[in-house]
Each structure stands twice: as structure tokens, then as C-alpha cells.
Amino acid sequence: MRRSLTIAATGDSFITRRLPENDHNSSVIYDIMKQADVRFTNLEVTTHHFEGFPSAISGGSWSIAEPEVLEDLKKYGVNLIGWATNHALDFSYGGLRATERNLNKYNFIHAGAGRNLAEANEPRYLETVNGRVALISTTSTFHETWRAGEQRPDIIGRPGVNPLGHNIVYKVSRESMAALKSIANNVSINAENDLHVQLGIKNKTKEDEFLFGEHKFKVGEEEEQVTTPDKEDMKRILKAVSEAKRQADFVIVSVHSHEMAEGDLEKPPNFLKEFSRECIDRGANAIIGHGPHILRGIEIYKKSPIFYSLGNFIFQNDTMTKQPMEFYDKHNLDHNSNVAELFDSRTDKDTKGFVVDEKVWSSIIPVWKMKDNRIFELTLYPIELGINQARSQRGWPKLEKRNDILERLQTLSEPFGTNIKLSNGLGKVEL
Question: How far is residue 354's CA from residue 317's CA, in Å, rounded to a whole number?
Fold first, then answer.
């Protein structure tokens, strides 16, 4: 790569309303984004006119927006989209296919879901005057039935998302392990699994592991949770990274991950750190994380940035016009209830949950420059999304020179050895 390439990235776009005409704040954001060749966001809604029926499960709410919101993402300058998320199949396969049609209709380069596993996993390419850019998108947060399925010569694959599974082993003391085995024996929690092992439906667990229901335990010197990426999923994704490295000048990997470490949502889990670094080892030039709806730290690994979470870019999860009965059932509401009552119930009339968490309503837009596969400049632009505004107004990004957002990011990035200097309301990462 002889010429420098500039990239701007945003976190989750949970967009469910149309952008107002002549909106000043979006124009300011566009001015930031347009300085970049690559302008990324993660789409966390399905976009269609209810072509699909609601799935029996969802990523939380059943995310849906009219397809025209994609036109508004263009007004922010977005030209590259990841959409492997825990919401991609909220409206089953019909919603998935309709979203893909609309992303194509609005001429976005997008990755992360498709008609089968090969499509969901494949790199997609954005052509810029300063180089060809590949995007691979995956999610570690998904229901098992949402995995895209691999195709065979004699049968088609299954539509879905590009999955990054992970394994969890809980290390406990010998005393705790003995107690777990005693409880399991007394309540027969493993009876079904033991039967499936006898019938050959499931494999027997390793000798040094014990299954307690769906959870694996192992005796260890320290009691802790150990997470590792699923080997087959990581192998498949890394192969796509390797392919993209040979076919493009720059490779971006987008990872949607809600999982956390030590019960702290601001801390990325170990499997995500391992996966991100391995992707860079195999040729990726940047990892863009999102999912927990809050910021996480930044790591510069081998001259390449890892954003463990960019939080929210647009967050409008309480202005959808229709939701399925399952959502109403969760809040003990009947068929006569409406969405306003539903969202009032979920937030206890805007007094609990996401709506009162300042971390959810503030984030950054990083803009960085690469040359010869190395980052040489990284600027951080703080944004806020209107936590104190009415439901009908909040959720749009606004550039704000807020040092408190950058100072929080400084603290989150320190464990990764990343230093952020503040100047005139912006952040500069020391490289």
C-alpha cells in the first residue's frame, strides 16, 4: 500500500426513525466521515416492511425499521456495513432476505449474513481511490439456530449469520467440584445428557471436565471463567481473512459481541481478545467491535487498531412501531396494549435500563490513517446521543467536545498499553 488510506468507523446503528430534513448535527458528522475513504457502521436492525414473521426468540426487542433508513445512513457518509448481529433474524429468514435485498438496493457493501455459511463468511470488497478494502463480519452473540449452515453438493445451506462461537469452562476448587457433583447426582441434572452420550447423540466430556447442566467445570488453582473461541469457527473466519489479505489492500474484521469478562460489560472477554489478535496475525488491519452498547478500550496490536467496542452510533430501540406478542407477554401486557405502553413498561417510564445509563448515550468516532499496513494517525471524536431528550428525539449522534467521554476511554484503554492525549475536545492516540 503506497498511498495512505483513511478509515472512519462507528458502532451500532440501531436506527428506527427517519433523519429530519436539514438536520445540522448529521451534517457535522458527515463532514467528519467524508474525510475518510472507508466509512463503516454496524447495522443492528432488520430493514423491511414486515416481509418476515417474528422469530420465536429475538436479540431483545424485535428490531425492525423501514428500508428507507438506509438512505439516511448514506447522509452520514456510510459506505461499508457489517450486519452479523444478534438481531439479524428477529424476523426469521424472510426478514433476513429482505434486509439483504434492501442493502443491495441502496448500494452498500455489506458482510456478515447470507443464504448460507459461505456467503455469510465471505469477504466483501469496497473499491476506493486509495486501495481495495475487504470486510469480514461475524457475531459471537446469537441463538444457535441463527448460525448460517454449510452447503453440500446434494443439499442447500441454511440462511443465517456468520458465527463466532466460544467455549466457556469454569475453573473451581476441588471442594467446589465435589459439591457440584453431589448436587448433580441428587437432582439428576445431567440425566438427559448422560443418556444422549450412551445413545451416541453427544460426545462424552473430557476426563478432566465435569458437565453441570449445560456448563463445563474443571478443577483449577484459581476459581475463574475461561473463554476460548470455537476452533472451527475461528479457522473458517481466519481463512477468509487470509483470502482477503491476498485480494485486497486493507482488511477489516467486524465483531458483534455482547459477552464480557469478570461480570464487567466494559471488559472484553478473553476469547474476543484472542480472536482479534489472531485475525491481525493472519493479515487483518483493523478489528471493529460493537455489541454491548457501551465503549470498551482500544488496543494497538502490531501497528493495527483493535476497537473492542465503539458503543452506539444511532440508538433508537424504543421507537419501533410494532412488536410481536411475545414481547408484550414478557411485560404482562395483553392484546389491547400498544407499543407506547410496552416501552413504558420495559423502562418503567424511562427510569431504568439503557435509557438512564450515560455510557449507552455517549461514544466516539475514530478516524485513522494507514500506510504500508501500519496505523500512523488516530483521532477520536466524542459524540453524544441525547440521553435527556424525549423518546421521540433521542438516539441521533451529535458531535460534542466532551473530555469526560475521552477520559473514560483513556481508563478503559490503559490495560492495553494505549495512551490517549486530549486536546481541544478531541482524543489523539499516541502511536
Answer: 10
Give Cα 212 distance to the centre of its chain.
29
Residue 34: all three cell numbers together: 467524508
Q: What is the mean predicted confidence (pLDDT) over 257-261?
A: 97
Which residue has cell 490503559?
Answer: 414
Q: What is the mean pLDDT of residues 64-78?
A: 98
Q: What does the block give as the cell for 371?
A: 500506510
Phi, psi of 304 (to 5 degrees): -130, 140
Say if residues 149 and 157 touch (Cβ distance below 8 Å): yes
Average pLDDT over residues 162-182: 96
Report field, pTM of the whole predicted structure over 0.85: yes
Whole-number Å distance between alpha carbons of 286 and 367: 12
**Whole-angstrom distance, CA of residue 16 vs CA of residue 318:** 9
Domains of the chain by range and CATH?
A: 5-152+234-317+357-429 (3.60.21), 174-219 (no CATH)
